[in-house]
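Justification of computing resources. Each target in the renewal requires a structure prediction run like the one illustrated here; the chain below, 550 residues long, is used simply to show the kind of job we budget for.
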Amino acid sequence: MLDATSMAALLETFLAEAEEGLETAEGALLVLERDADDAEALALAFRAIHTIKGNAGLFDFHALAAVTHAMEDLLDGLRSGRTVASHGLTSALLDGVDILRSLLFESDRTRAVGAREEQLIARLTGRTHEPGAYTPLNVQRTAHTLRIDVARLDRLLDLSGEIGVARGRVGQMLEDATVARKLVIEAQHDADLLHQEMQELVMKLRMVPVGPSFRQLHRTVRDTAQSIGKEAELRIEGGDVEVDMTIVEHLRDPLIHMIRNSIGHGLETSGVRRAAGKPAIGQILLRSFHDSASIVIELTDDGAGIDRARVLERAVERGLVAANHTPSDSELLELIFQPGFSTAAEVTDLSGRGVGLDVVRRNIDAIHGSVTVQSRPGEGTTFRLRLPLTLAIVEGLRVGIAGESFIIPMASVVEALRFPTGGQRSTATGILDHRGETLPFVRLRHRLSRTGGAGTRENAVIVRYARGRAALVVDELHGECQSVVKALPPSLRGLPGLSGSAILPTGGIAFILDVPALLQVELDQYDLQDGLPNSRPSIRRNQEWSCSPN
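Resulting structure tokens:
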């Protein structure tokens, strides 16, 4: 008999492997739905369900074992030819995947078979063809496992030993007064190189390919399209591109929202597509690739494109654009990310509630990324996400405010320059004329309630965010830095404007600024002076200064 600790570890392994098995089975079933003769997909689904059934029996998970047993029998019948494949059978098996996924998250996994499971088993065994009334469960466990290359672990162990030797060497040199200072510096430099290699390797250990997460979206495309009487299929390119596992976790909801938007608003029905000379089945391409120190993810559909006239009509109705103003194309497309914005004529389960693309932007902003959109009438729409490769380390610009250090992520920084002298430094906000461009500025010492002594000069950090560009006014510029991100203490979590903290080389602590959230607080009200709400924030205009590079 295993003790409680061993059983808990065994259960955690089972849950992780069962989740992977369900993802495999789901992907194989979606292939079978398109091609009932695909023997390889059928065998893959059978093996995955068979494995889950055997492991569930070890834990006495009765409902889980019963459902997998019925699914295994049906899949075996399809393999042997005793059962003829059909859309109804594939749908029942996919519903079985949903129920199994739900059972994995229940607190009482040992419960007996309930009415929901009985109804599904009746469908799987042919005793009824009535679908059940339950919804797919879109959840992910908070506990995570990673598959790591043993060679990387071996190198990590070697580095640990080498760093220990290097530290010991530096220590001996410091104790020996006869050792030249130059030799000590060289030894310290060697130790730093080893530490840097270890840090890079640890970051690589956290990197996972985006493909497995992206493949789960095949089901989202299938279910969404069927729910509104359309046909669509998803293609994935660049699934082997690696990114930090935390980035992958934050991508799921934005991608689901964008897919639902593409199917609901972009793709036409099969009849309309044929009349336009397009394939009956709508195409959605999910592509990822590395670009410098970022990962770029593009979601492209071949639908009708964004109806600009409808967007403008809705924007005027909501007071987002003045009736006599004609926005540029980029300004018009930007409106679809406004909270509560929708072009749907009626409210459905898929659209019309004004919840969707604003959530995408908010979630992407939260991980220091950006989202843009391009669209061509009759040809389709592309959403482009640009994201950092990791959230564990931040490349930032360290600034000083009232004697304290803060870090502005470099992903948001455009440039830094001297802020013009004159005017009242007590003013929290104002308008800055920067090379002919009107930018709002926010003094961070006011926004962050810092009252320490001010220096003789101020500096402006020009940053980009969802609505354009703005200036953050700080006291000092300390230069670029790379910092390991630490979680905020409980008392500061949820405070707008702060996303984490970092330990400085001096041993002090610097807070990492959340630029989008910081500016949202200050610049959340707009006027219609120039027709568009984003064109000029309605902050106090008693100071309008010109600014040029230092």
